[in-house]
Amino acid sequence: MSRNATALWHGGGKDGHGHLTTQSGVLKETQYSFKSRFEDGPGTNPEELIAAAHAGCFTMKLSFVLGEAGFPPEQIETKCDITLADGAITKSHLTVKAKVPGIDKEKFDACAEDAKKNCPVSKLLNTDISMEAALV
Question: What CA–CA distances, in Å, run from 80 to 5, 20, 47, 59?
């Protein structure tokens, strides 16, 4: 499986602007800029999108892990906070609230730790990055 998104940027880093479009069309020319990334301007930013991806991926993985352990969840809510400092993403913090009938705290904690370690986005945040770059 492969998914894609496209970023289009016009101008310099601080005074420019751009938009993001995803393959699914959920984001379609969604605005982003210096202000939406580092201030309170309209639009999204890469860190917000990484937070959404990590929260969504982790939550789905936790649902699978709990189900495989015999404890299908009623509801899982995950908030992800991404920290950008000194030009790098330095932290991803997950805050999880779940309704899981019949599970004890120790088993839930073990399932959550498994999901945190093994969801694809968690793995990506600790992976090598490769690139093909060309001038057109």
Answer: 21, 21, 10, 10
The answer, yes or no, to whether residue 127 has pLDDT greater than 90, is no
Amino acid identity of 72?
P
Phi, psi of 116, deg, nearest 5: -60, -40
Kindly state the percentage of the chain with pLDDT values over 70.
Answer: 100
What is the fold, at CATH topology level, of the domain defined by 45-127? GMP Synthetase; Chain A, domain 3 (3.30.300)
Alpha carbon distance 81, 55 (integer Å): 9
User: Would the pTM of this model clear 0.70, i.e. be above it?
Assistant: yes
DSSP for 18-68 reads EEEEETTSSSSSEEEEHHHHHSS-SSB-HHHHHHHHHHHHHHHHHHHHHHH
Residue 30 backbone dihedrals phi, psi, to 5 degrees? -75, 125
pLDDT at 60 over 90: yes
